Automatic annotation (TrEMBL):
Domain (Glutamine amidotransferase type-2) ranges: 2-213
GO biological process terms on file: asparagine biosynthetic process
Family: Belongs to the asparagine synthetase family.
Name the record gives this protein: asparagine synthase (glutamine-hydrolyzing)
Chain positions recorded as L-glutamine binding sites: D100
């Protein structure tokens, strides 16, 4: 795992290019603390910081093909690189290293951009073609690894994280009002946009080519969709057999490394399944990690202990308090580089730190199972509301919704009237392609009310929910409601929020690589061809997985009630132990100075949180959104970060100067 950065058409001296690139790499050295290297030519510059996992001795980047016409830096892992290398050897390619990086550059030489379809992995790639004078960038199918780009003057600049751009001359970011409107509705942006104007991310499953004449982006993989007539797997038996085969191989590939591989064991079904498959493939001792909470409403330690004892793993667990969240939240925003509506990324960062503190660099996790097998309550909620919409006046059908949220008192203890008021929003609009998410997005969008007058005016005529509805109307024709809801979660939410703020960013902030067997593209393609009843059977989520794992997991884990992963908010941000910086960011002075939010509205929200008077989930999300945005503004717009000193800069283990600059 690594971090990459570079630029094209930056017309300064070689010395200035080297210095700029070193500074950019230093800002992301947490992604690769083991070594770093750069390649400098007249037209382009590439750099990498590396976390050594595969080929610990000879895989230092940048690397080239045999004749030095192609140069690569790379962030990620190609899990099937051994098989791909054998294919290339048969075509007379020769290799100087045992790294997956070198395999990529030879694949590009042999097949061009089509090579991306051969990869099983998680990656962000940059290749410079000296002969074509062309830069090639690519990103994995589901966006596990990040890749951002921007233009500064005539220069094209790219990096694994936006914070690298802060070290590029004359880069002056600005918060995007449109992006905030989307974050405060969907928890993320809709497209390639980021929180900053003019800064974009290369979409998952895409590649880009940049040369003197053009900049083009093409898609090489899209999330598959199956209509009812096209479901490939309709019986439990055939689906179970196929999943067992694919998932076993997905796990086996992700165990490949020249360092120890550990696993998260949360006490839930997903991590227990991955642990079970790991133990089946390699019965040796397995290191596992988990995190619990001092607040019992969030804690799952009892289930983690059951799983630990069942699998007999070498287990380490840490406890997260509200104070831990408040003390670490600023760093979490720095690494997320986006507004947050939940504090959940903070414990994930603490968990990754625990892994790293045990000298482990790689961890396997269960992300993706909820999206692919109907695990989230939003899928059940959609099913209940379709059922309720057939008899809108029913007194009993809305009561089913109380079963989904036992951990939210305002819902679990609500009467019929309250349930109708809360969940009855646009109840009869079942034909809408985004029906599953209408209520949630409508409620979250109320956070936009806290924006300042200027920011509200900037998005006065912008309706992001209507924009999505129009875009998906034709695409979702004839699809079942679960497939629609799953596609929305996978397409809009997974890469840009879940894998970003809770996945790659929190792990790599601590120099840990996460691996996700449920997000092997073969597993995704399999799941999107399943009959929906094999995913959500009645209100029984992950039906196929539960049937498959019967007698292979403890009953208490296999059939436990679904508990959403959450972390404290109100107690973290409003206590006597609240760090001074949090109070400062929410002060009237700072709110007014930054100009993003309405100071009077924020003052009222703060008082409500402090007095603890009927604080809702929306209130908790709103205060988190405000606080994280204020921190983001302070860090990236005000640039209230220490300037890099010469002693801070990464040591370059490899420096390649092309003949064009010598």
């Amino acid at each position: 795992m690594c971090g990459i950065a570079g630029f094209y058409n930056f017309n300064l001296s070689t010395e200035d290019k080297v210095h700029t690139l070193r500074q950019m790499l230093t800002r992301i050295k947490h992604r690769g603390p083991d070594e770093s290297g750069i390649y400098i030519s007249k037209a382009t510059s590439l750099g990498s910081v590396r976390l050594n996992i595969v080929d610990l001795t000879t895989g230092t980047m940048p690397l080239s093909n045999a004749d030095g016409s192609l140069w690569i830096v790379f962030n990620g892992e190609i899990f099937n690189h051994i098989e791909l290398k054998e294919e290339l050897l048969a075509k007379n390619h020769s290799f100087k290293t045992h790294s997956d990086t070198e395999v990529i550059v030879h694949l590009y030489e042999e097949y061009g951009p089509e090579f991306l379809n051969k990869l099983n992995g998680q990656f962000a790639i940059a290749i410079w073609d000296k002969y074509k004078q062309e830069l090639f960038l690519a990103r994995d199918r589901v966006g596990i690894r990040p890749l951002f780009y921007t233009t500064v003057g005539d220069a094209f600049v790219f990096a694994s994280e936006i914070k690298s751009f802060l070290e590029f001359p004359e880069f002056n970011p600005k918060i995007s009002a449109k992006a905030l409107s989307e974050y405060f509705t969907f928890w993320t942006t809709l497209s390639a946009n980021t929180a900053f104007e003019g800064v974009f991310e290369l979409p998952p499953g895409s590649y880009m080519t940049i040369n003197a004449n053009s900049k083009t982006i093409k898609t090489y993989w899209e999330l598959p969709i199956s209509k009812p007539k096209d479901y490939k797997y309709n019986t439990l038996k055939e689906a179970s057999e196929e999943f067992e085969f694919i998932f076993t191989d997905a796990v086996k590939l992700r165990l490949r490394a020249d360092v120890q591989v550990a696993a998260y064991l949360s006490g839930g079904l997903d991590s227990s399944i991955t642990t079970s498959f790991i133990k089946k493939i390699t019965p040796d001792s397995l290191r596992t990690f988990s995190i619990g909470f001092t607040e019992k409403d969030f804690d799952e330690s009892s289930f983690q202990n059951i799983a630990r004892d069942y699998f007999k793993t070498d287990h380490s667990s840490i406890i997260c308090s509200s104070k831990d969240i408040s003390e670490n939240f600023k760093d979490v925003v720095w690494h997320s580089e986006a507004p947050l509506l939940r504090t959940a990324p903070t414990p994930m960062s603490m968990l990754a730190k625990s892994v790293r503190d045990h000298n482990i660099k790689v961890v396997i996790t269960g992300e993706g199972a909820d999206e692919l097998f109907g695990g989230y309550n939003i899928f059940k909620e959609t099913k209940i509301k379709h059922f309720w919409a057939k008899d809108p006046q029913s007194k009993y059908r809305p009561l089913l919704l109380k079963k989904l949220y036992p951990y939210i008192p305002q819902i679990s203890k609500a009467n019929n009237t309250v349930l109708k008021l809360f969940f009855g929003f646009k109840l009869n609009e079942t034909a809408s392609p985004i029906y599953s998410h209408l209520l949630r997005w409508h409620n979250t969008s109320r956070i936009n009310n806290y924006l300042s007058k200027d920011y509200k005016e900037a998005v006065h005529n912008y309706n992001p929910i209507a924009k999505i509805e129009k875009q998906l109307d034709a695409k979702f024709k004839d699809l079942d409601y679960l497939t629609k809801a799953q596609w929305i979660e996978l397409h809009f939410f997974m890469s840009k929020y879940l894998l970003s703020s809770q996945g790659d960013r929190m792990a790599m902030a601590n120099s840990v690589e996460g691996r996700y067997p449920f997000l092997d593209h073969r597993v995704i393609e399999f799941c999107m061809q399943l009959n929906p009843d094999l995913k959500l059977n009645g209100l029984n989520e992950k039906y196929l997985l539960k049937k498959l794992m019967k007698d292979r997991l403890p009953e208490s884990i296999l059939n436990r009630s679904k508990q959403a992963y959450r972390a404290p908010i109100q107690s973290a941000f409003f206590s006597e132990e609240m760090p001074p910086y949090l109070d400062a960011m929410l002060s009237e002075e700072k709110i007014t100075e930054f100009g993003v939010f309405n100071a009077a509205y924020i003052s009222k929200l703060k008082k409500k949180m402090i007095l603890n008077k009927q604080v809702s989930e929306i209130d908790n999300m709103a205060i988190t959104a405000v606080l994280s945005t204020q921190i983001l503004y302070d860090l990236f717009i005000n640039k209230s970060i220490p300037k890099l000193q010469e002693s801070d800069l990464v040591i370059l283990n490899k420096t390649i100067l092309d003949e064009s600059v010598i």
